[in-house]
Design brief:
It is a single chain. By secondary structure, the chain is mainly α. The chain has one domain: Four Helix Bundle (Hemerythrin (Met), subunit A) (Up-down Bundle), CATH 1.20.120.160. It contains seven helices and no strands. Functions as a two-component phosphorelay mediators between cytokinin sensor histidine kinases and response regulators (B-type ARRs). Plays an important role in propagating cytokinin signal transduction. Keywords: Cytokinin signaling pathway, Two-component regulatory system. It is found in: Cytoplasm, Cytosol; Nucleus.
């Protein structure tokens, strides 16, 4: 098997495993397929942007929820932002946890918000390395001359 085909196969195996675990849904494949329309670097840039933005949002949520007087409106806004990002890229397990955070923030329950945030962080840490591996493979595929 040629190096490019082996890389494509490895990437598809990782994606399939994440789908089988319930971590990714069809939106991830839709995002991956957008490279056919938008160019070979789209997907290789989309996932790292998602990972960076998610890390920043999780940090901001942690800070908000550690305040003695929580601004639940700000928590709701960040939960909506994060849920949108996770749903659009297809990290469905994170999107569900973001929904839990939103409901807890709507109820203004700091303890439940922290529990939901910890669920999101756990899921993010669980899939982070695998998404990063997908990006590294994708960049190698692009470097070999194609998508």
């Amino acid at each position: 098997m040629a190096p490019k085909e082996a890389l494509i196969e490895r990437m598809q195996v990782i994606i399939s495993e994440l789908e089988e675990e319930g971590s990714l849904d069809e939106n991830f494949r839709v995002a991956e397929d957008l490279k056919d329309v938008t160019g070979p670097y789209f997907f290789a840039n989309l996932v790292p942007t998602f990972l960076t933005d998610t890390r920043i949002t999780l940090r901001d949520l942690t800070r908000l929820l550690e305040e003695p007087s929580v601004d639940f409106g700000a928590v709701v806004q960040l939960a909506i932002k994060l849920r949108g990002a996770t749903a659009s890229i297809g990290t469905c397990s994170m999107a569900r946890s973001c929904g839990n955070l939103r409901r807890a923030a709507d109820n203004q329950t700091q303890e439940r918000c922290m529990q939901a945030l910890n669920e999101i962080k756990l899921e993010f840490s669980r899939i982070y390395d695998r998404l990063d591996e997908i990006v590294q493979i994708e960049r190698r595929i692009v470097a070999l001359g194609g998508i």
